[in-house]
């Protein structure tokens, strides 16, 4: 498993403008074709370039360990789940509203993590408490920064509430937020419940993206 060279893009591919294709669609296609992480994901069999975000976070924070129980919330299409399996997690349970194609070594569940039945299904599949809860979820963006920030913080709060129910003491929580970081109340909860809380922007996050990740480790347990 190798990372793309930093800044290495090679030759630039440009598309001829196709009839009926919008300018925005044209730009998106060209960006995908010229993105080294997209090419690396295809070459290494990952379902999305987002896999490299988790790889880079893991290289920095040493999140994934052999034999762990890992939950991947909002997992589709499954790039983060693939990384967790490849890095030796003992049990990996992926949950999403969307159906996913099978990933060897992982249990894929379809459902809403706010549903108590989904929570019970995750715990049953883990056969014990989780060591790490991952969330790369993000709402559809509106283009209005303040609104988008509030919407993703709401998702993070829900993911954290789920994590606090299923994590073992010493466990970790990783979730996507937007620039502006984690709101005060949420950050205070994280700092109270975890030994260490940090923000990071992995190199695989596009430079023009507002995304950051909150990385909380050393879950203290209890209420």
From TrEMBL:
Compartment annotation: Cytoplasm
Keyword field contains Cytoplasm: yes
Main localization, broad class: cytoplasm
Keyword S-adenosyl-L-methionine tagged: yes
Active site: 176 (proton acceptor)
InterPro entries for the chain: RNA_methyltr_RlmE, RNA_MeTrfase_FtsJ_dom, rRNA-MeTfrase_E, SAM-dependent_MTases_sf
Region (Disordered): 1-25
Domain of life according to the entry: Bacteria
One GO term (biological process): methylation
Catalysed conversion reaction: uridine(2552) in 23S rRNA + S-adenosyl-L-methionine = 2'-O-methyluridine(2552) in 23S rRNA + S-adenosyl-L-homocysteine + H(+)
Gene3D superfamilies: Vaccinia Virus protein VP39 (3.40.50.150)
Pfam families (UniProt xref): FtsJ
GO molecular function terms noted in the UniProt entry: methyltransferase activity
Principal EC category: transferase
Keywords: Cytoplasm, Methyltransferase, rRNA processing, S-adenosyl-L-methionine, Transferase
Ribosomal RNA methyltransferase FtsJ domain ranges (all copies): 46-219
HAMAP family hit by this protein: RNA_methyltr_E
Protein name: Ribosomal RNA large subunit methyltransferase E
Primary gene name: rlmE
């Amino acid at each position: 498993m190798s990372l793309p060279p930093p800044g290495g893009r090679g030759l630039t591919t440009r598309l001829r403008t196709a009839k009926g294709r919008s300018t925005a669609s044209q730009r998106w296609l060209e960006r995908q074709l010229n993105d080294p992480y997209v090419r690396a994901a295809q070459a290494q069999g990952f379902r999305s370039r987002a896999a490299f975000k988790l790889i880079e976070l893991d290289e920095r924070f040493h999140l994934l360990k052999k034999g762990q129980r890992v939950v991947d919330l909002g997992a589709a299409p499954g790039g983060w789940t693939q990384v967790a399996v490849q890095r030796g997690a003992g049990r990996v349970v992926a949950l999403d509203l969307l159906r996913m194609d099978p990933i060897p070594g992982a249990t894929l569940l379809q459902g809403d993590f706010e549903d108590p039945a989904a929570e019970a299904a995750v715990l049953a599949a883990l056969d014990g408490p989780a060591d790490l809860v991952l969330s790369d979820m993000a709402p559809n963006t509106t283009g209005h920064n303040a609104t988008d920030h509030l919407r993703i913080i709401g998702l993070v709060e829900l993911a954290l509430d789920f994590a606090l129910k299923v994590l073992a003491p010493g466990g970790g929580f990783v979730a996507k937020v937007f620039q502006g970081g984690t709101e005060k109340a949420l950050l205070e909860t994280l700092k109270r419940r975890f030994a260490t809380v940090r923000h990071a922007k992995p190199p695989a996050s596009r430079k023009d993206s507002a995304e950051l990740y909150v990385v909380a480790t050393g879950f203290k347990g209890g209420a």
